[in-house]
């Protein structure tokens, strides 16, 4: 269940000079930061610590949007200092994105937007310093930032004498594994701080230590040692808003979960969950008022105005933080370790004194570089994207125009927001297809594939089927190089514990039968996985034995019981070798199919309508399952509409003059939008 709670009414209009969110999904007290909007663009072109083209050089001047043409690890010796009116657009980095490693970063400034980057301080950083520190400043937002290995706190907002900190948002972030004996998540002392959908993990204490005005919604806190969340620990007035958070003990936990409350801490709290055992199961309880000690309770709503933010239940928060937190356009080895700890539900975790104890190459693991798209005028927008949107790839000034956005964002911001997966709206009312990053490097092989034409669930044809390539997200790649698969390809996940394939399925009728998985495992060792549908684990440790070769495909099956609804179906690797290659998922009962990846999961027994089916065969698109008229568009990966059709029922569309390559089919039916990737040969 997703809902918006309106605690304060914040009116704004979408014109320049007036309030516009930092980006469409920005929330909380820091929502209104403008960053480098309307300013210069600086391209980070190398991984050097300093000098021309370096990140440090880019941060030497205010009023910039910083984009990256390289991916990898930037090893720094001294701390970085972020100036005012700055946007750090980590989502532009190719390959595995950007990791800043070796020291911390100071944000003693105002009006900063930081997205999709990793800040990993490490034992070699300045002694007694934080990975991220704020000693004064206002109007800043961090989104999808992975922060770890501070030598004091990981993220400390602690005002200097006679200074103030206000209007901060930390959302969709990871704050993890402070080093040495202090090892804290951090202080949060601000006149308005929102911490939303963020993972605090493997910190000794202060997850966080909250004073003044703190909004703490849908976060996950796991494996503290001395203390979990600290409720002020001061006689000065503080106000807190705690809703839908999930707390879980880990192997290092020995102290309490809610600590050091005082009557001066005024609190509104509900729907906070405590997984209070270490046995690998989620069988804890929800907090009652008595768990919060001597705080002063708001009887109804807080008298302090907290911004309206999205709210989920604590259980939904656990799943969504697991799926989405951190610099997740490419989840690195470090974050995968942390999420493996979280998924163990009490059985694993680590609080090392030195990050090298994790045993990762170069301290942070391998972060691939990749190649950035061509940007002739250096305005931060690739040539191909500019051409597709009617801009001039040789005019850098058009980055600050607003002719594309229906809301008032600059053209550069439209590209950056679209790249980050935000729901951008163009003036013609259209929305873009998914960014090419969600495709996860599809193979370009054109090898002829010999494959079965019917999916067998046991002795009979499967009654319901989801192709392996119809995933919504995957820690791995789409492939078509190993013969014998059905459909257009299969999924090959990364070799690591915790790698996932995520599907969204619609269940039309109650399911009480068997689920079949067709797979290949070309190595000798078994590859076990966990399969879950929403919060329900339907196969805790399903073993996929060797098939002898990657071109040999077999099926395994297991019993499954699901009520009607929409589910996030996850296949999670339990082996360091990852999971098997997946060709398809089948059921021996009818009424199950892949649905729109944006569909909201159902938590109650309601009838779910299966998505229309779009199948590609011999240069034609076959559409079935429509219950009302629909509009179909064939788009490039960059979003350019090439062909469009209006259809009213089952239809076969013969494609015309499409060059070989990858495309997106978008089908809009009422308010529902369905998209599917395909390859033309």
Layout of SSEs?
Elements: E1 3-5, E2 40-44, H1 55-58, E3 64-68, E4 72-75, E5 80-81, E6 86-89, E7 98-101, E8 105-106, E9 110-120, E10 132-134, E11 137-148, E12 155-157, E13 165-171, E14 174-176, E15 187-196, E16 199-201, E17 209-217, E18 220-222, E19 229-231, E20 238-243, E21 246-248, E22 258-259, E23 265-270, E24 273-275, E25 285-286, E26 296-297, E27 309-311, H2 314-324, H3 333-343, H4 383-388, H5 411-419, E28 456-457, E29 460-461, E30 464-467, E31 473-474, E32 476-479, E33 490-493, E34 500-507, E35 511-520, E36 527-533, E37 536-544, E38 554-562, E39 565-573, E40 581-587, E41 592-594, E42 613-617, E43 620-624, E44 630-636, E45 641-647, E46 651-654, E47 661-669, E48 672-680
Parallel strand pairs: 2-3, 3-6, 4-7, 5-8, 6-9, 7-9, 8-10, 9-11, 10-12, 11-13, 11-14, 13-15, 14-16, 15-17, 16-18, 17-19, 17-20, 18-21, 19-22, 20-23, 21-24, 23-26
Antiparallel strand pairs: 1-27, 24-25, 28-29, 30-40, 31-34, 32-33, 34-39, 34-41, 35-38, 35-40, 36-37, 36-39, 42-43, 43-46, 44-45, 44-47, 47-48
């Amino acid at each position: 269940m997703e809902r918006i709670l309106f605690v304060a009414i914040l009116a704004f209009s979408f014109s320049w000079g007036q309030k516009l969110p930092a980006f469409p999904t920005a929330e909380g007290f820091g929502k209104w930061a403008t960053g480098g909007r309307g300013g210069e663009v600086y391209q980070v072109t190398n991984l050097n610590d300093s000098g021309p083209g370096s990140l440090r050089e880019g941060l030497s001047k205010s009023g910039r949007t910083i984009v990256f043409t390289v991916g990898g690890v930037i090893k720094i010796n001294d701390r970085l200092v972020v100036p005012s009116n700055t946007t750090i657009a980590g989502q532009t980095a190719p390959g595995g994105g950007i990791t800043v490693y070796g020291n911390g970063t100071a944000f003693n400034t105002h009006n900063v937007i930081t997205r999709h980057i990793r800040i990993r301080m490490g034992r070699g950083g300045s002694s007694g310093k934080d990975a991220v520190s704020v000693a004064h400043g206002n109007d800043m937002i961090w989104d999808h930032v992975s922060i770890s290995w501070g030598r004091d706190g990981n993220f400390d907002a602690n005002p200097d004498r006679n200074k103030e900190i206000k209007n901060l948002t930390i959302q969709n972030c990871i704050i993890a594994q402070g080093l040495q004996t202090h090892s804290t998540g951090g202080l949060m002392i601000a006149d308005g701080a929102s911490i939303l959908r963020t993972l605090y993990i493997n910190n000794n204490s202060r997850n966080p230590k909250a004073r003044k005005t703190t909004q703490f919604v849908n976060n996950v806190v796991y494996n503290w040692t001395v203390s979990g969340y600290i409720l002020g620990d001061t006689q000065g007035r503080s106000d807190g808003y705690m809703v839908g958070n999930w707390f879980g003990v880990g192997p290092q936990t020995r102290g309490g979960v809610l600590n050091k409350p005082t009557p001066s801490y005024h609190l509104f709290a509900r729907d906070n969950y405590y997984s209070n055992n270490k046995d690998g199961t989620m069988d804890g309880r929800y907090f009652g008022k008595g768990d919060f000690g001597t705080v002063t309770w708001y009887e109804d709503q807080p008298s302090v105005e907290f911004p309206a933010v999205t709210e989920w239940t604590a259980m939904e928060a656990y799943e969504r933080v697991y799926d989405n937190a951190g610099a997740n356009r490419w989840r690195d080895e470090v974050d995968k370790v942390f999420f493996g700890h979280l998924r163990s539900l009490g059985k694993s975790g680590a609080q090392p004194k030195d990050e090298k104890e994790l045993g990762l190459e170069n301290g942070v693991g391998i972060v691939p570089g990749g190649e950035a798209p061509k940007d002739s005028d250096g305005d931060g927008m690739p040539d191909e994207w500019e051409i597709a949107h009617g801009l001039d790839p040789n005019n850098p000034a058009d980055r600050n125009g607003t002719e594309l956005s229906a809301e008032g964002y600059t053209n550069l911001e439209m590209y950056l927001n679209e790249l980050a997966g935000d729901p951008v709206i163009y003036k013609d009312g259209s929305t873009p297809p998914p960014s090419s990053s969600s495709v996860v490097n599809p193979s370009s092989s054109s090898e002829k594939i010999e494959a079965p034409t019917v999916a067998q669930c046991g002795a009979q044809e499967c009654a319901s089927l989801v192709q392996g390539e119809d995933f919504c997200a995957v820690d791995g790649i789409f492939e078509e190089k190993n013969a014998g698969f059905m459909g257009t390809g299969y999924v090959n996940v990364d070799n690591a514990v915790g790698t996932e394939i995520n599907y969204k399925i619609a269940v039309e009728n109650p399911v009480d039968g068997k689920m079949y998985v067709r797979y290949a495992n070309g190595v000798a060792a078994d590859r076990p996985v966990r399969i879950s549908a929403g919060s329900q684990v339907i196969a805790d440790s399903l073993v996929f034995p060797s098939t002898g070769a990657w071109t040999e495909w077999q099926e395994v099956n297991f019993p499954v019981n699901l009520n009607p609804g929409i589910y996030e179906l996850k296949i999670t690797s339990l082996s360091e070798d990852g999971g098997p290659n997946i060709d398809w998922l089948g059921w021996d009962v009818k009424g199950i199919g892949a649905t729109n990846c944006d569909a909201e999961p159902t938590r109650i027994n309601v009838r779910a309508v299966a998505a229309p089916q779009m199948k590609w065969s011999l240069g034609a698109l076959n559409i079935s399952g429509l219950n009302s008229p629909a509009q179909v568009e064939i788009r490039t990966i960059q979003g350019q509409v090439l062909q469009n059709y209006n259809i009213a029922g089952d239809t076969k569309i013969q494609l015309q003059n499409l060059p070989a390559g990858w495309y997106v089919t978008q089908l809009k039916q009422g308010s529902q939008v369905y998209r599917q990737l395909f390859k033309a040969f």
